[in-house]
Design goal:
The protein has a 7-stranded antiparallel sheet with strand order 1-5-6-9-13-14-15. The protein has a 3-stranded antiparallel sheet with strand order 2-4-3, with no helix packed on it. The protein has 2 domains: about 35-130, T-fold (Orthogonal Bundle); about 140-300, ApbE-like domains (T-fold, Roll), CATH 3.10.520. It is built from 9 helices and 16 strands. The protein is an alpha+beta fold. Strand 11 and strand 12 form a beta hairpin. The protein starts with a strand and ends with a strand. The longest helix has 19 residues, at about 15-35.
Length: about 300
C-alpha cells in the first residue's frame, strides 16, 4: 500500500507466517482499491461505460457502502467519488499539466462527481457507473486495510496485538501485563505541544494531517484533502485531526470529514457521532489542541 507496517503481538507465533498473513490482506486491498493499479477493481469501475452495473467483491462493496454512509452522516464532507477532481490537482495517478486546474476542467470534473449519483444494489452487491464518475478511496481504504488485518489475525487465533500501518493503529485485547495498548497521539512536525496518550482496547486511531501531502501554489500550501463544495484543496485547514473508533475505516473517514469541516463544525460532528476526536490548529501564535468530550474522557493529559 505504499507504506510500512508493524505488528506488536502477544503470545507465540511464527514471524514468517504472520508476515505472509498481513501482507496477503494488504495486497488484496491494493488489488481492489488502488487507483495506481491499472487493473484494480476501482480502476476498472472508473473506466466503465455509463449506465453499466458491476458486481463488486465483498471488500470493495463494504468500503463503498461505508463510504456512502459516511457521506450521508457528514453531509458530504467526506465523499468517495471525487477521483476526477483529485486527479486534476495532481494527487492521483494521472499526470497533469495545469495546477491549479483550468476552471472549465474543474467544473466538468465536479459535474461528474458526487456521492448521490452512485446507485447500489445491496441484494446483489452491485454498483452502477453513472458515467465518468471516478471513485477515490484514499480517505478510507487504509483504515479498511487495518480492519481487514485485525480480522484476519483474530481468525488465526490471535487475541492481543497492536497493528500499525502508515501512522494508523488498531488494537485488540490487553497486553500481557493486563493493561491496554498505550500509544502517544500524533502531532504535526514542529508542534510544541505536550504529549497526549490514550489506552487502546479494541479501538483504532486514524489521523489526517495537512503536512503529509500537499501542493504549493503562489507560496501557499494547499493540503491534499479536497473540499467537495469547491473542488479545491483546503487552505489553512486544521493541521492535524485524530479520530478514535472501534472501526478504523470509520475513524479514517471521520478524520477527513472533520478536516474539511474545520474545527468548530468538525467537533460538533464528533459530538453528534459520539466519537473521540482531537484537532490541532496553527493559531498564528503557535499551536492549539482541542479535544471532543469523548477524547477528554479517554486521554491521559
Amino acid at each position: 500500500m505504499g507504506t510500512r507496517w508493524s505488528l506488536d503481538l502477544s503470545g507465540d507465533a511464527d514471524p514468517q507466517a504472520l508476515e505472509a498473513l498481513v501482507q496477503s490482506e494488504l495486497d488484496a486491498v491494493v488489488r481492489e482499491m488502488s487507483q495506481w493499479e491499472w487493473d484494480s477493481e476501482i480502476s476498472r469501475f472508473n473506466r466503465a461505460e455509463a449506465g453499466s452495473w458491476h458486481v463488486l467483491s465483498p471488500g470493495f462493496f463494504h468500503v463503498l457502502r461505508g463510504g456512502l454512509a459516511m457521506a450521508r452522516v457528514t453531509g458530504g464532507a467526506f465523499d468517495p467519488t471525487l477521483g476526477a477532481v483529485v486527479d486534476l490537482w495532481g494527487f492521483g495517478p494521472v499526470a497533469v499539466e495545469h495546477i491549479p486546474p483550468l476552471p472549465d476542467a474543474l467544473a466538468q470534473a465536479l459535474a461528474l462527481s458526487g456521492w448521490q449519483k452512485l446507485e447500489l444494489d445491496e441484494t446483489s452487491r452491485r454498483a452502477r457507473q453513472p458515467g465518468g464518475l471516478r471513485l477515490d478511496f484514499s480517505g478510507i481504504a487504509k483504515g479498511h486495510g487495518l480492519d481487514r488485518v485485525a480480522r484476519a489475525l483474530e481468525q488465526a487465533g490471535h487475541r492481543s496485538f497492536l497493528f500499525e500501518l502508515g501512522g494508523e493503529l488498531i488494537a485488540r485485547g490487553l497486553k500481557p501485563d493486563a493493561y491496554p495498548w498505550w500509544v502517544e497521539l500524533e502531532v504535526p512536525p514542529g508542534a510544541d505541544l505536550p504529549p497526549v496518550r490514550v489506552g487502546l482496547l479494541d479501538m483504532a486511531i486514524a489521523t489526517s494531517g495537512d503536512y503529509r501531502r500537499y501542493v504549493e501554489i503562489d507560496g501557499r500550501r494547499m493540503a491534499h484533502s479536497i473540499d467537495p463544495r469547491s473542488g479545491a484543496p483546503l487552505v489553512d485547514p486544521p493541521a492535524c485531526v485524530t479520530v478514535l473508533h472501534a472501526e478504523c475505516m470509520i475513524a479514517d473517514a471521520l478524520a477527513t470529514a472533520i478536516t474539511v469541516l474545520g474545527t468548530e463544525a468538525g467537533l460538533a460532528l464528533a459530538e453528534k457521532a459520539q466519537v473521540a476526536a482531537i484537532v490541532i490548529e496553527r493559531d498564528g501564535q503557535g499551536w492549539r489542541r482541542t479535544l471532543s468530550s469523548h477524547a477528554r474522557a479517554m486521554a491521559d493529559l
